[in-house]
């Protein structure tokens, strides 16, 4: 069950200690300082529909309003009984630097924060219970923080049963006269919009985010949340809590920061239901979806997308959600940005956690699991075990995804999005969309390919009746830039691994093979793909994978080396770690081929140690070399003499 703060005490996600508040502080209402015309250059002016509250509004029971929404206006209790103050404006931020605290069982300590956004003065005054300013924030910078989202749960819990919240029952998509109760367990964004968002923002006539007293100013999103409104808020919150935990780490590595690391409870994510002004949706809608707040918010988030996969797999039947995947999988690459897709779903499961220094284990309960293109920045204990619990049947339903068959709540949205995807503009945006187009198929292949590549990160079985569809979807993905087989190939049969390697994505740019136990059969299949595909592969990492036999490692290593010498090779980074692909029997071939290579910028080789038995030796050195080819900027190549000197170092296993 969802709690107000993360139940995993092994990762610290709080960036700011709780403020000590007195009773007077808690009931103080937000008025806001005087307006500074020099602040917030990205905030525009908007004239509300009414600058003064109407007579009916003035007669409204202000006390009842504040009681109804006290969790949003004043605060709420967290999972350990502490009070979370929502009455004061709070900076949006993320952790720009973290470090491990080994004395505290691997907890993360936040060393440095970076503020996000600018101040916006006087969005709504709860002291005067009126609009104190007609200023508004651009929709795309109305992200919402985990601290703010958590307030919704206790509000629903307190009011839904007491006030007998209900909603219509739908059968086959048609509303009936029947109604059902809304509970904390089944409340969706549709219910929240009806019972919380619209009533809470009625007097401000602004978005939910702008109306919250805890919003200090613009909250540019670090991640974009793609979701189905029919998913329950409890499941959505579990996914977001797990995602924040998975992306807490930011070790000041460029990659951690670029991948969205440093997430905290004060880091904004963009959710349309809370960013859009529900009283003025017309102003939020554009005829060209590329100009929409959705597209702008995703660009601000550097096309980092967390897709909430609901238990009924409805999210990918929604056109807007598919369009959002198009933005991160295709458009981001067209703009020379590397979008990042993370798919999280609600699923209760337990994983074994090993406690140091005793290394005793305990079962840690989790309520959500996420698959990330590559991996999250914070790989905690039990992460890979958790992946094995991902409910793969939800994935298999995505193999039949077709964007032209998805649904939109507004028919205008359907026309505009599909027409935009095939290149129509202007008045043509109002035409009935084409039923088929090559651009549709490109998007379908990209989405299916991304799904299947992520599936293999969690797969411990193969067939499931979808094997051929999985291979076809993976092979025809032009946009899937990376795929990593970590420790999962040991569960595959050798012939299945051959199928996998022969059908790697056409657009693959980074590939990692770890602990593959299938020897030459698997490596020959990978080399077949490498030699016969017009590949853009740039990074190749092979770890703990020995070919074995008297000549297996020698011959496969020579095949790889000769590919590196070809003009079509684009590999600029190569790491071979604990593998027999390089050794005394083929070192001359490696020297010759490295001298001919024109693409490599760095090479790293390491010795054997744990894999001696595959080559029949009793002892091999555990030595390593790092070979930076070129200067720090990555340009230029090392001289032939330098290469020969490095390659002849006594660092290769002698076998």
From TrEMBL:
Gene3D superfamilies: Ribonuclease Inhibitor. Residues 18-59 are annotated as: Disordered. InterPro entries: LRR_dom_sf (IPR032675). Residues 50-59 have a biased composition (Polar residues). It comes from the Eukaryota. This is Uncharacterized protein. It comes from Chaetoceros tenuissimus.
């Amino acid at each position: 069950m969802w709690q107000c703060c993360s139940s995993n005490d092994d990762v610290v996600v709080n960036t700011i200690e709780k403020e000590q508040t007195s009773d007077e502080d808690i009931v103080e209402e937000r008025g806001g300082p005087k307006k500074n015309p020099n602040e917030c250059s990205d905030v525009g002016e908007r004239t509300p529909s009414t600058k003064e509250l109407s007579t009916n509004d003035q007669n409204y029971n202000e006390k009842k309003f504040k009681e109804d929404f006290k969790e949003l206006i004043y605060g709420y209790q967290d999972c350990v009984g502490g009070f979370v103050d929502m009455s004061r404006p709070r900076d949006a931020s993320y952790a720009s630097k973290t470090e491990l605290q080994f004395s505290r069982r691997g907890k993360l300590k936040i060393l440095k924060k970076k503020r996000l956004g600018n101040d916006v003065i006087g969005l709504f005054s709860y002291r005067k219970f009126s609009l104190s300013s007609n200023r508004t924030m651009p929709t795309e910078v109305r992200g919402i923080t985990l601290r703010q989202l958590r307030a919704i749960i206790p509000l629903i819990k307190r009011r839904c049963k007491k006030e007998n919240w209900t909603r219509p029952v739908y059968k086959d998509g048609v509303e009936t006269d029947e109604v059902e109760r809304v509970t904390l367990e089944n409340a969706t964004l549709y219910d929240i919009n009806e019972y919380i968002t619209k009533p809470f923002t009625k007097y401000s006539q602004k978005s939910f985010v702008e109306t919250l007293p805890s919003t200090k100013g613009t909250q540019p999103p670090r991640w974009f949340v793609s979701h189905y409104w029919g998913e329950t808020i409890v499941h959505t919150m579990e996914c977001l809590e797990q995602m924040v935990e998975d992306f807490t780490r930011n070790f000041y590595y460029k990659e951690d920061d670029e991948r969205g690391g440093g997430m905290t409870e004060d880091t904004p994510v963009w959710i349309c239901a809370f960013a859009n002004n529900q009283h003025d949706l017309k102003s939020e809608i554009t005829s060209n979806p590329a100009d929409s707040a959705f597209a702008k918010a995703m660009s601000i988030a550097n096309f980092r997308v967390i897709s909430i996969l609901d238990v009924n797999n409805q999210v990918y039947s929604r056109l807007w959600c598919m369009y959002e995947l198009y933005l991160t999988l295709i458009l981001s690459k067209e703009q020379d940005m590397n979008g990042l897709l993370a798919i999280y779903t609600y699923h209760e499961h337990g994983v074994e956690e090993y406690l140091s220094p005793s290394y005793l284990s305990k079962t840690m309960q989790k309520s959500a699991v996420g698959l990330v293109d590559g991996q999250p920045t914070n790989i905690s204990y039990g992460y890979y075990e958790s992946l094995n619990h991902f409910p793969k049947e939800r994935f298999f339903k995505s193999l039949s995804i077709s964007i032209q068959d998805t649904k939109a709540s507004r028919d205008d949205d359907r026309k505009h999005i599909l027409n935009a995807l095939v290149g129509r503009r202007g008045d043509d945006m109002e035409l009935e969309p084409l039923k088929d187009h090559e651009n549709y198929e490109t998007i379908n292949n990209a989405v299916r390919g991304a799904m299947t590549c992520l599936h293999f990160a969690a797969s411990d079985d193969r067939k499931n009746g979808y094997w051929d569809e999985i291979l076809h979807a993976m092979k025809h993905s032009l946009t899937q830039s990376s795929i990593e087989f970590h420790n999962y190939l040991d569960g595959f049969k050798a012939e299945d691994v051959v199928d996998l390697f022969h059908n790697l994505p056409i657009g693959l740019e980074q590939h990692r093979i770890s602990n593959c136990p299938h020897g030459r059969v698997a490596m020959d299949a990978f080399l077949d793909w490498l030699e016969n595909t017009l590949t853009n592969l740039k990074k190749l990492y092979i770890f703990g994978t020995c070919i074995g036999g008297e000549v297996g490692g020698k011959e496969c290593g020579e095949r790889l080396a000769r590919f590196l010498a070809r003009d079509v090779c684009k590999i600029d980074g190569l790491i071979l770690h604990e593998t027999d692909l390089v050794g005394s029997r083929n070192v001359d071939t490696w020297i010759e081929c490295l001298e001919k290579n024109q693409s490599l910028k760095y090479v790293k080789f390491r010795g054997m140690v744990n894999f001696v038995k595959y080559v029949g030796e009793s002892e091999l050195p555990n030595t390593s070399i790092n070979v930076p080819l070129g200067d720090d900027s990555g340009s230029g190549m090392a001289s032939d003499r330098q290469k020969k000197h490095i390659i002849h170092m006594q660092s290769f296993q002698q076998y």
